[in-house]
Structure formats: structure tokens, C-alpha cells
Amino acid sequence: MTTQAQLRHRYAREAVTTASPAKLVTMLYDRLLKDLHDAETGLGARDIPKSHACLTHAQDILWEFHSTLDTSVWAEGENLKRIYEWAIDMLVQANLEKNIRRVVDVREVLEPLAAAWHEVADQGITGER
After folding, report:
1. What is the Cα gyration radius of the chain?
2. DSSP collapsed to 3 states, 85-100
3. What are the tens digits of pLDDT across the range 84-109?
4. Phi, psi angle pair for 53, to nearest 5°
5. C-alpha of 46 from chain center
6. How far is the CA of 47 from the CAs of 3, 20, 38, 39, 57, in angstroms?
7. Is 105 exposed, middle or buried (0-12, 13-18, 19+ CB in 10 A)?
8. Half-sphere exposure (CA, 13 Å, Cβ side) for 107?
9. What is the largest CA-CA distance in the chain?
10. Helix axes 21-44, 3-18, angle to 10 degrees
11. Are 23 and 121 in contact (CB under 8 A)?
């Protein structure tokens, strides 16, 4: 690993370890949206390995959101879980069918959620109990 790569890796590791829970969620949403964008690009270029990697990584992030959502503290959490389940299903289908439209549909639903989390984090709400 080059010195430049080592510095980037250390910066990323420190950013994650010092971030508030709300900031961590925004970081995951940012990566999720990047994966979806890259999957769209990969599918458009018929780059199947790239699109597959991006779609499966996006699903992993969505499963993490789904599994860590505490529905006992927020009544609407069940609805958000259903959105995550729908998105995962759509991405699985997109990967099987190589269907870019399904990826776009998921991205368009998740972008406002990402923006809402960024607003929360920007307001200084940490998400810590």
C-alpha cells in the first residue's frame, strides 16, 4: 500500500470511529447511493462484475439498516423496514435481470431518506441515547 493510500485508509478509519451515530448513518447512505449510481453505470455499460459487486454491497448496507432499526422507539420504524425490504428485493431482481430501471427506482426512493439523515446530522442531532 502506498503512503497516499495508507493516509486515505487511516483518515477513513478515524472518521468512522469518531463519528456520531447519525453521522455514521449518513456515511452509509452516501456509500449506498454511490453503489446504486455505480451499479447503474455498470449495467448501462454491461459491466456485469462491477454492477453485481455494487448491487450486492448496496444490499449489505440495506440489510444493516434493516437489522439495526429499533422499531420499539419509533412507531414508523416498521414502515421504514418495509421500504428496506422492498429495496433489497428490487436490487436482487435488478441483479438477476440486469435491469437498470429497478436500480433507478430504488435510488429515487432512498435519496430523500439520505437527505433527511443529512439534515438530522447537520442539525447536530447525534442519535446517541
Report:
1. 16
2. HHHHHHHHHHHHHCCH
3. 999 999 999 999 999 999 999 999 99
4. -60, -45
5. 22
6. 31, 36, 10, 9, 16
7. middle
8. 20
9. 48
10. 130
11. yes
